[in-house]
Structure to design on (78 residues):
């Protein structure tokens, strides 16, 4: 059955033009238009994301860590 399907698709397919080696318009690389403000904003956003991730990791470590009891010892003379 698959051979029949392949035969029918080859007959119905349009011929593909030969490639000339050039890039078509949708394959061309898009220019970056970020600018200095965009670079600064990206750096600030990355720094803020790192700070938030660090604080979240510390909070999670403190929340999931072992319970600690604080023992207050009194001196004999006090």
């Amino acid at each position: 059955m698959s051979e029949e399907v392949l035969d029918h698709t080859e007959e119905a397919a349009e011929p593909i033009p030969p490639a000339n080696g050039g890039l078509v318009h949708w394959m061309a690389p898009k220019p970056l238009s970020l600018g200095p403000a965009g670079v600064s904003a990206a750096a600030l956003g990355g720094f803020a994301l790192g700070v938030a991730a660090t604080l979240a990791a510390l909070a999670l470590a403190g929340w999931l860590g072992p319970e600690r009891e604080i023992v207050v010892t009194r001196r004999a003379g006090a």
